[in-house]
Write a structure and sequence with these properties.
Residues 134-470 form the Aminoacyl-transfer RNA synthetases class-II family profile domain. This protein has 480 residues and is of the alpha+beta class. It folds into two domains: 6-103, OB fold (Dihydrolipoamide Acetyltransferase, E2P), CATH 2.40.50.140; 130-317 and 366-467, BirA Bifunctional Protein, domain 2, CATH 3.30.930. It has helices at residues 6-11, 56-59, 99-102, 114-119, 128-150, 209-219, 255-276, 278-292, 305-313, 322-330, 333-336, 353-364, 414-423, 432-436, 452-460; strands at residues 18-29, 33-37, 45-48, 67-76, 84-95, 154-155, 161-162, 174-175, 202-204, 221-229, 242-251, 318-321, 368-374, 390-398, 402-409, 445-451. The longest helix has 23 residues, at 128-150.
């Protein structure tokens, strides 16, 4: 006798056979019908208990949240709402759930707010919504690795602990082995990091890009996919202190090749979930439709969830220079009527989400890739154009979200890179190894970064990024 996943049983044509299934009780009604779920699918399996021949002490222990094993024959269901059901011959309680305790949790069968679910993040994956989100997240993750593997990229694990700040933003979590109540000091009263574990100041990484660049210079095409950290005190629906980044780097690749890859990559992974997560996407889409009914017309989503995903996979991405985009925005109705929160006046403005969404949703009506940004608003490692004022940067813009991908052709010329680092006060001594990659066989190379949670947010239609990662880390919150 084999244990079988509910997802497989609900699809199988092999009826009138005996199966063993293990899962958690979602509902138990009339002392007869168990709704069982094992996490493999959104749908429950109905298990029909012969209550006349089941000991009463067993029936009393079949409570919501309990883990059980049932053995029985799979047959066509006599009732409505399911194709098949199990006629239970044996039942075993694997883990009990006290009904009085269950009432205090989100396991009780009623609607709970997303905020309430966040307070019990260890249990929320047992709800339909979070089961669906996390299955979609898992499939997206698999598709990322599958895509890059098929394209001949090598997966590189870059350091979590680092001495460099790839973005130059300074919003980094410090790592130390010091006793914080007895910090060693230098003669001038500063903390003596030479006595710390690594002998220098270290932080949690904000990006694996710089190390991935170094590996692209030997392996050709690489990608990282790992956790990154930002000590940004932002309590918003778009920010996390710990999140995952996908960062490919390619040698002998210019900005055009970088834009080609980003478009192909995004279409591939969104197509993958459209093809492999239909039940979960349908559930999440219906959830959003119900949510929209309580909103004013103007605040409702212009596209349903799967339509929005197909909007990305079925449209060519429009490529527009930053300079052209600024002109479009300056002359737009919302800008002229000062409807934007940030009115566009001059070239050089840092575009906000409202501007990016206007370009995608109102003006071009398709995904947009902006390129050739002002050097002043971009990072030191981006390749300077011949005009001396723009860099070979690109951002991929999505509806409803704005920037999804940020990338660039990297500055391969040692002298230009050093000048930019000096201008932005980036310590050459700290990045001596990064400069080395420009001394020994430098070449045109490019890459981009995609925040994985932002992609999961888009793919599931959720509105708060804290709801697309298992245990969110945010200001004043490191629970679980």
């Amino acid at each position: 006798m084999r244990d079988t996943k509910i997802a497989d049983l609900l699809q199988t044509e092999h009826l009138l056979q005996e199966y063993t299934v293990k899962g958690w009780v979602r509902a138990f009604r009339s002392n007869r019908f168990i709704a069982l779920n094992d996490g493999s699918t959104l749908h429950n399996l109905q298990c029909v208990v012969d209550f006349d021949n089941t000991p009463e002490e067993v029936l009393k222990r079949i409570n919501i949240g309990a883990a059980i094993a049932v053995k029985g024959e799979l047959k066509e269901s006599e009732g409505k709402g399911q194709r098949v059901e199990i006629d239970v011959k044996e039942i075993e309680i694997l883990g009990e759930a006290n009904p009085d305790e269950v009432k205090k949790t989100i396991l009780q069968p009623k609607r709970h707010s997303l905020e309430k679910l966040r307070e019990q993040a260890h249990l929320r994956v047992r709800t339909n919504t979070f089961g669906a989100i996390m299955r979609v997240r898992s499939k997206l993750s698999y598709a990322v690795h599958q895509y890059f593997n098929q394209k001949g990229f090598y997966y590189v694990n870059t350091p979590i602990i680092t001495g460099s700040d790839a973005e130059g933003a300074g919003e980094m979590f410090k790592v130390t082995n010091f006793n914080l109540e007895d910090l060693p000091k230098t003669e001038d009263g500063k903390i003596d990091f030479k006595q710390d574990f690594f002998g220098k100041e270290t932080n949690l990484t904000v990006s694996g890009q710089l190390e991935a660049e170094a590996y692209a210079m030997g392996l050709g095409q690489v990608y990282t996919f790992g956790p990154t950290f930002r000590a940004e005190n932002s309590n918003t629906s778009r920010h996390l202190a710990e999140f995952w980044m996908i960062e490919p780097e390619m040698a002998f690749c210019d900005l055009d090749g970088n834009m080609d890859l980003a478009e192909e990559f995004i279409k591939y992974i969104l197509n993958y979930v459209l093809e492999n997560c239909d039940n979960d996407l349908e559930f999440l889409e219906n959830r959003l439709i119900q949510e929209d009914k309580s909103k004013p017309e103007k605040d409702r989503a212009p596209m349903q969830l799967r339509e929005k995903l197909r909007f990305i996979t079925e449209n060519n991405f429009k490529r527009v220079s930053y300079t052209e985009a600024i002109e479009i925005l300056r002359n737009s109705k919302p800008n002229k009527k000062k409807k934007f929160d940030y009115v566009i006046e001059d070239w050089g403005a840092d575009l906000q989400s409202e501007h990016e969404r206007y370009l995608v949703e109102k003006h071009f009506k398709c995904p947009v890739i902006l390129f050739d940004y002002p050097a002043d608003i971009k990072a030191f490692y981006m390749r300077l154009n011949e005009d001396g004022k723009t860099v070979r940067a690109m951002d991929v813009l999505f509806p409803g979200i704005g920037e999804m991908v940020g990338g660039s052709q990297r500055e391969e010329r040692l002298d230009v890179l050093q000048a930019k680092m000096k201008e932005l006060d980036v310590d050459e001594k700290e990045l001596w190894w990064y400069l080395d990659t420009r001394k020994f066989g430098t070449c045109v190379h490019s890459g981009f970064g995609l925040g994985f949670e932002r992609l999961v947010l888009f793919a599931t239609g959720m509105s708060n990024i804290r709801d697309v990662i298992p245990f969110p880390r945010t200001p004043k919150n490191a629970e679980f």
